[in-house]
Amino acid sequence: AAFTKAAERQAFLDLAERQGKPARLLHLHCDPATTLARLDRRLANGRDASDGRRELLSAQAAAFEPLRPGPQLIEIDSSAAVDYNVQQLLCRLLPG
Questions:
Q1: 33 and 94 in contact (C-beta within 8 Å)?
Q2: Is 0.85 surpassed by the pTM of this model?
Q3: Which long-range contacts (CB under 8 A, 24 or more apart) does 86-92 make?
């Protein structure tokens, strides 16, 4: 889920808490040039997602409400190597 609205994210976290389940918000981000290059590459490879297009990016970014820092938020710079990001994610999720 994209959870572009803060209220959507909070509703998800509240539901998990009521159910006694752990929940995390994973925010993957990268610089705009990387985002555009990836969108262009996906289009060129014939893997164009309906909501992942260059012409929609500005509106989507403007509609995304700021994230509230907290223990449930995990930020990942997706321009870093995949192996590095997996390691960072596992370190945040696994105890010890």
A1: no
A2: no
A3: 89/26, 92/24
Per-residue pLDDT tens over the stretch 48-78: 656 778 888 899 889 999 999 999 999 999 9
CB atoms within 10 A of CB 14: 11
- Residue 75, classed as helix, strand or coil, is strand
**48: helix, coil or strand?**
coil
Whether 92 and 74 have beta carbons less than 8 Å apart is answered as yes
Burial (Cβ within 10 Å: 0-12, 13-18, ≥19) of residue 80: exposed
